[in-house]
Amino acid sequence: MAKPARVRTIAPPRGSIVTKALSAIRSVKGTRDLLPSETPLWQRVEEEARRVFDAYNFREIRTPVLERTDLFARSVGADTDIVTKEMYTFQDRDEESLTLRPEATASVVRAYIEHRLFNEGGVHKLYYLGPMFRRERPQKGRYRQFYQIGAEVLGSDHPTIDAEVLEMLTFLLARLGLREFSLLINSVGCGKCRPTYVEVLREALQGVKSQLCADCQRRAETNPLRVLDCKVEADQAQIARLPRIVDYLCADCRKHFDGVEAELAQRGVAYEINPRLVRGLDYYTRTTFEITSSGLGAQNALLGGGRYDGLSEMLGGPSSPGFGFAIGQDRLMLAVEHAGNLKGENSIAAYVAWLGDGAFRPAAELARGLRQQGWRVEIGYEPVKLSKSLSVANKLHARYAIIIGEGELASGRYQIKDMGTGRQEEVEPARVPAYLKEKLGTGPV
Fold it and tell me: For 36-52, what is each residue's pLDDT tens digit?
């Protein structure tokens, strides 16, 4: 006879709900709940993003939130703040080091290599939406679990791709009702010209590094480019006087950057060159960019990205140039709310109000039929007075209330009340879907 499995009893920690019955469990620091009053606008933003991506022939990819730690150490950069300070990393039961993804580009390229998408040839346009994780100091618009909307183009290094993606982003932001934003671009060179610049930069830093923050003093030795990405206000005056990478580009990188500028001008996309813009990840080459928004205050970066032509090889794949971006959706939502030009859909098409036990079954059948046609419909579950039902309809922002009582059943015509104007009309049950479509125009809400 088999022995029963051993049950391991774990004592509750001090201060737990067992020992402190009245202490409520709260969300983890740096995380938050998105409540039903907030999610309609989030959904609207995501729907607009999907529409724009579809128009430019991007297809969705979904990657795991858990990856091997080495993926980010090799791609993002072992000396970046993300890897050294911010990643959520742990050993699983097989003693393998795993990390909650701090960004998605490396995951997308890993999937591209693992599933050999490069064998299909051509350019691959991929987009994603989802949560990322970094142990940063929580502040307005920045959380430890945060959300990104991003896209990657793999398989070509043509400057037209850079410009087309930037055009797509400005189109998306306009669709979201944003008007006050700025596109900043730069080139960080390639494996041929960047080492020369790094040495020039390293030498220039020797005379000023003692005046910089502790992190920049360390970066001046380990990875001088990271100094340019410093956000400490007191360091900015010294950083502004450092050599500019655009002055050290090789002929190929100069030609590529000129090509991006020419394409942006041809498309009517306004931009500024920021020679200090290097972004915070080691895999970038050539074009880097950020879009800032005046609606975000001092920390005004809304989204960013760039070209990463060597990332596939860095992760063990073939040569597959890439270009992409990530939008911090939490910060994007702040900008959208500040602009106030986009609204989430909080209303329902109809509330079915029934009066008397005999009306419940026809009311439920009507609600079911409307729902199956895609209309957002609610119905009461308990018998109440009409005034109470209409009050509930108002709270739910119902566009119409459909009233079904004994009189309506006897006449074969339901009362439909416009909750905005108060006007009522009698409509035969079979015509209710057509009536809603005619009145609401845009179809089911």
Answer: 989 999 999 999 999 99
pLDDT in tens, 306-326: 999 989 999 999 999 999 999
- pLDDT number for residue 74: 87
CB contact at 8 A, 229 and 216: no
Taking the C-alpha atoms of residue 189 and residue 198, their distance in angstroms, rounded to an integer, is 11
Contact between 375 and 349 under an 8 Å Cβ cutoff? The reply is: yes
The neighbouring-strand residues paired with 185 are 273, 289
State the average pLDDT over residues 269-273. Answer: 95
Q: Name residue, tokens 């915070």.
A: 280
pLDDT of residue 75: 85
Q: Are 277 and 288 in contact (CB under 8 A)?
A: yes
Contacts of 186 (CB under 8 A, 6+ apart): 245, 246, 273, 274, 275, 276, 277, 278, 287, 288, 289
Q: Does domain 39-193+249-339 have CATH number 3.40.630.10?
A: no
Q: State the Cα–Cα distance between residues 365 and 163, nearest whole angstrom.
A: 53
At the top level of CATH, the class of 348-440 is alpha beta
pLDDT at 58 over 90: yes
Residue 93 makes CB contacts below 8 A (sequence gap 6+) with none
CB atoms within 10 A of CB 220: 20
Domain locations in the chain as residue ranges: 39-193+249-339, 348-440
